[in-house]
Amino acid sequence: MTLADTVSLAWGSLAHQPRRTLLIALAMSIGVGAVVVLTALGEGSRRYVLEQFASLGTHLLIVLPGRAETTGASPGVLSGQTTRDLTLADADAVTRLRGVARAAPLNVGVAQVSRGGLSREAVLLGSTADMLEIRHMRLGQGRYLPAGPSDQATPVCVLGESIRAELFGAGNALGEWVRIGDRRFRVIGILATQGQQMGFNTDETVAIPVAAAQQLFNTESLFRILVEARSRAAVPAVKESVLALLKARHDGEADVTVITQDAVLATFDRILTALTLAVAGIAAISLGVAGVLIMNVMLVSVAQRRSEIGLLKALGAPAASVRRLFLAEAGLIAVLGAVGGLILGLAASFVLGRLYPALPIAPPLWAMAAAVATALVAALLFAWLPARRAAKLDAALALARR
Amino acid sequence: MIELDRISRGFQVGDQLVQALREVSLAINAGEFVSIMGPSGSGKSTLLNLLGLLDRPNSGIYRLDGADVTGLDDAAAATVRREKIGFVFQFFHLVPRLTAAGNVALPLLLAGMAPSERKAKVARLLADVGLSARAEHLPSQLSGGQLQRIAIARAMSMNPALLLADEPTGNLDRATGREVLALLEDLNRRGTTLILVTHDQEIGARAKRHIAMEDGRVVGDTHPSPAGGGEMP
Ligand SMILES: Nc1ncnc2c1ncn2[C@@H]1O[C@H](COP(=O)(O)OP(=O)(O)O)[C@@H](O)[C@H]1O
Ligand SMILES: [Mg+2]
Question: Which residues on neighbouring strands pair with residue A126, listed in sequence order?
Fold first, then answer.
């Protein structure tokens, strides 16, 4: 029997029982559709997170004191020695390195910010003028921190939008004075509102010159140095030269860690890809359920069509042809279900995309292919038992109508 | 063409062995018209199933056209059925969702014949049984006599040398039964070996050779006309 004839014979028997066929195909569709929608969501969130990170600048390197990685010397050796702090001089030296576009030192603390009778707690960022560019922040009014030597503790500050609103309300803030800790600072700029960014809500921060922050917190050391490489390609080289420079400056002690955005990105990428796969796997279970349904319905069908099967054998169909016929029926149902499922999944993804425009929802091609393949394999696998039963049917008995 | 040598077939029913055929030996020549008669349960259908390779004996040897076909595997037996044997059943066994033409085409389709060739052949076969006008009718739209004629057209589609009919008139009224028998006799006259199981004395009498069965044994084998070729073993 040719493949075309097998398929058309199988199709005839499916078309003869349209409701049954559509019901199983629907079950398959739901499984395929679920895989498509859920992977679309997972992939959408992955891309969303990656885009968020990319918006922070993919050229970014973060230098922090101490060695996070324990390659080489054991951590016990390190903790026994005095880990050198990062200093303003270190930051200045890094700025002058080749391949570095700009670098900014960073100190972070919490302080009480007050004006007249109004007071609130704010996250205090001690940095330099370059911070604005490095963190891709936007100014609402005035200027950012003044350029100039980083060790100058000019008493000026730049307020986040929420802080300004709370302390000044509708009144003018630029040029006014606020009290931070025990010092007075003049407001020279207001940040445009931009919400959450890498763990900070910039609207809730107050920026002051790094030297002023060090005096306020009574420390000589830095929390971080943020470095922007000239290009994404320069990032690895800059990382190496920063490490080498600081090692030289710290008496040959490799006691800092440099995190690149790429590494963070790669980690998130891995986590979210794994999540998408897990979700797809769970959705694929519903395809197994649809497979069980196919098996059940086909077992009933084989019992009902005993005399037809016996007849085919009497007319010269070997067991293999009978088996192929039933597998073809299952395969056709799976194709029907897969097509329906793709339509269902794409439609649902489209609707979700409309509901959450921020998420770049698009079902990945690999997921659609995998869903269709899983549907086919599940259908054929679960149809194997009924098909085998049909193939093994005793023709004489089936034709006897006992 | 057919040689059966001490064929036995028993069925295990619960803890009891029902002996359907007991050492049946038989020789049938090509072109014969043989009727098999006997009481219900005497083993007629079992014998026909064995001849059609739908069943296997527990012991004995079956030679078809000189070749031992007793132990053929499924695929080989299917090939022999397809190429040499046609079946006609009491209950017609037409596929209800296929048209008359679709049913007649089934053996051709199983044999892998190309659709165009198939179409012409089916038209000829339907014309042979006088049902060209019914080609696109479904079985549910046809009478018993028409159904059996379509079944005969289907059985003849591969030009088998051997036609096995198990009570082909059992479900038809007398007049229609005679028409169907006339059709079968016509095929026999054109060379097909015809083996016919029946309960009907009148129809059985039309055969040239009569085999009587009882309790799994051949108890009579007569050749009323000298044209018959079979000999008692
Ligand atoms: N598949 C089977 N399983 C059990 N018993 C069977 C089977 N086929 C036939 N028999 C038994 O074998 C005997 C002969 O049956 P059968 O050949 O159908 O008789 P007939 O066609 O002459 O009426 C009967 O007793 C019947 O019950
Ligand atoms: Mg019988």
Answer: A107, A208
List pLDDT tens digits, range A380-402.
999 999 999 999 999 998 898 64
**Domain residue ranges in chain A:** 3-52+266-400, 100-228
What confidence score (pLDDT) does residue A199 get?
59
**Which atom from ligand 1 is nearest to the alpha carbon of B216?**
14
Q: Which two tokens stand for residue A184?
A: 């007075």
Q: Please identify every residue whose CB atom is under 5 Å from ligand 2, which is an ion.
A: B 45
Please give the span between the terminal C-alpha atoms of chain B, in angstroms, as a whole number.
14
Nearest ligand, CA of residue B217? 1
Distance (Å, rounded) from C-alpha A110 to C-alpha A289?
55
In the predicted model, is pLDDT for residue B169 greater than 70? Answer: yes
Provide the mean pLDDT of chain A.
Answer: 87
Q: First CA to last CA across chain A, in angstroms? A: 30
Ligand 1 site residues, Cβ closer than 6 angstroms: A 397; B 11, 13, 18, 20, 38, 40-46
- HEC per residue, chain B: CEEEEEEEEEEEECCEEEEEEEEEEEEECCCCEEEEECCCCCCHHHHHHHHCCCCCCCEEEEEECCEECCCCCHHHHHHHHHHHEEEECCCCCCCCCCCHHHHHHHHHHHCCCCHHHHHHHHHHHHHHCCCHHHCCCCHHHCCHHHHHHHHHHHHHCCCCCEEEEECCCCCCCHHHHHHHHHHHHHHHHCCCEEEEECCCHHHHHCCCEEEEEECCEEEEEECCCCCCCCCCC
ipTM above 0.90, yes or no: yes
Q: Is A225 helix (H, G, I), strand (E, B) or coil?
A: strand
CB < 8 Å from A in window 35-64 of B:
45-46, 49, 52, 54-55
List the single residue in A with minimal CA-CA distance to B164. Answer: A314
Task: Write down the domain spans for chain B.
Answer: 2-222
How many A×B Cβ pairs under 8 Å?
A: 70
Please say whether the beta carbons of A59 and A261 come within 8 A: yes
CATH architecture of B2-222: 3-Layer(aba) Sandwich (3.40)
Which one-letter DSSP state was computed for residue A69? -
For residue B126, give the nearest of B105, B144, B96 by alpha carbon.
B105
CB A121 within 8 A of CB A110: yes
